[in-house]
Amino acid sequence: MKKTSVIILSGVVILFLVSWLVKGASLSGEENPYLQGFLTTFAAFLTLAVFSFLYRDNPFYKFAEHLFVGASAAYWMTLGFWQTLVKKLIPKLSDGLANFFEVPTEEHSYWYFLPVILGLLLLMRLSKKGGWLSRWPLAFIVGYTAGINFVGYLRSDFVKQVSSTFVPLLIDWQGVGHFFSNFSLAIDGQFVMMLANVVIFVGVLCGLVYFFFSKEHTGLFGTASRVGIWILMITFGASFGYTVMGRISLLVGRLTFLFKDWLGLIS
Amino acid sequence: MKRQVPLLITFFVGTLLIVSIFSPATENLGEEFSVFFDVIAVFAFFLGGGNLLRVHLTKISRKREDWVYSVVTLVGFIVMLWAGLFKIGNEGGIAASVTEESSLFGMVFYSVLIPLQSTMYSLLAFFIASASYRAFRAKNREATILLVAAFIILLGRTAFGTMLTSWMPPSLSLAEIPNLAIWIMNSPNLAGQRAIMIGIGLGVVSMSLRIILGVERTYLGDDGK
To answer: What Å distances lie between residue A228 and A238, A239, B191, CA to CA?
Structure first.
């Protein structure tokens, strides 16, 4: 280890200890102040360790990254054990085990041994000879996903979306004279509402035309395809803007944590 | 055995789930199978955890580059697993929720996992900003449309955007930036999303059929050919 690395590491450890003690002392009115102080300081240091990646890859970032991988793997395993095996599986198979885990017993169904057997077969993937047996649970998962998605996507992503596209293009129509005499660009006005429905209908149609590659995009078809591209560009732009705002609000959340919960600089 | 049985299982399960919705007697089959799916997924998590242990223990024992960080991974993994499986510090005992805040598992979850996860995602704000600087150049008409849409959405969700056009009369309220942002989200954006969703829907349905009928068998690996 280089001398500079040792100095930096020692500095960070000292800073951590000082911050922990100061935070613990500031929380003296609460229950377990030094434990709370430790947890807040540790969370703050992990936050700073991840942000340090903005400078370049470094040991603090690697520490946070590796800790995240290990802890989240164990988190999902634990959650799976308690929420699925204990809550959903055990009550169906054994009263004794259900009583041990203090979960309500249910009517037994020995069909529930099937996923256990398939799950154990999945572990055969670790064996060189019997690895092929792990394809059976995989086949169940693939078959289940295909069957559920076949119906689900057909209903929600196809039929429902197509039917929602066929909307009335004339809203509250009382003649051309009434339309022009009451014309306005108010967000809840007749024109804007009609425009929204026209944009949705024409936009979906043109968007689909753009995705239709069996015919050359020329003439009227090409014009529709071009409009489709514009609609898709607006969609991508809007999604991008929305994503940026989401990430920025997360960043604001982390900065609030650092300046309010940890340093106490903002009230 | 190696190829036919998995293909049969896929065909049987997929067909059964599609057919089951047509009969009231079997309409709950999807829910039952979803529990089966969850149980198998838990075993997959165990497999993943075992694999993580194997990989990092090998790295430590052979003292490969950056092996010290593998120790960090293993410590995080073992502490979290021990705290969660044995519900260490849970005031309500074995029947209490595993994510109870006062438990060790809850403490690690709220003080390690949540900060790390949200900071990792918030880090993307910087990368997106740098990517948009490079990508957002109005080189042609399409790029300009994308740029303008993104700009209006961003501006529409800030106090500055509201302030900029708050003087508009009610008859021109569509031109107010926050309203325009909402309108873009609800109309042209919806149209584009819908066109994409219809395409995805058709793609998923055709892929599901290919899988159920055994035409698509890449999930079986090399032996599936």
So the answer is: 15, 16, 9
For helices B188-212 and A219-256, what crossing angle results, to 10°? 100
Structure tokens that stand for A153 in this block: 């996507």
Query: Where is A254: in which H helix or E strand?
Result: helix A219-256
Q: Specify the pLDDT at position B60.
A: 95
pLDDT at A28 over 90: no
SS3 sequence, A113-173? HHHHHHHHHHHHHHCCCCHHHHHHHHHHHHHHHHHHHHHHHHHHHHHHHHHHHCCCCCCCC
Is B222 in CB contact (< 8 Å) with chain A?
no
List the single residue in B with minimal CA-CA distance to A143: B10
Nearest alpha carbon to residue A88 among A112, A120, A110: A112
B152's CB contacts (< 8 A; 6+ apart) are A241, B177, B180, B181, B184
Q: How far is CA B2 from the centre of its chain?
A: 32
The two structure tokens encoding residue A71: 């802890």
ipTM of the complex: 0.85
Q: What is the pLDDT of residue A238?
A: 93
Amino acid of residue B105: F
Could you tell me the two tokens for B180? 């325009």
Residue B160 burial by CB count (10 A; 0-12/13-18/19+): exposed, middle or buried? exposed
Of the partner residues A79, A123, A146, the one whose CB lies closest to the CB of residue B43: A123
Distance from CA of B62 to the nearest CA of A (A): 18
Q: Given pLDDT bands bounded at 50, 70 and 90, which one contains residue B197?
A: very high
According to the model, what pLDDT value does residue A175 have? 86
Residue B137's pLDDT is what? 75
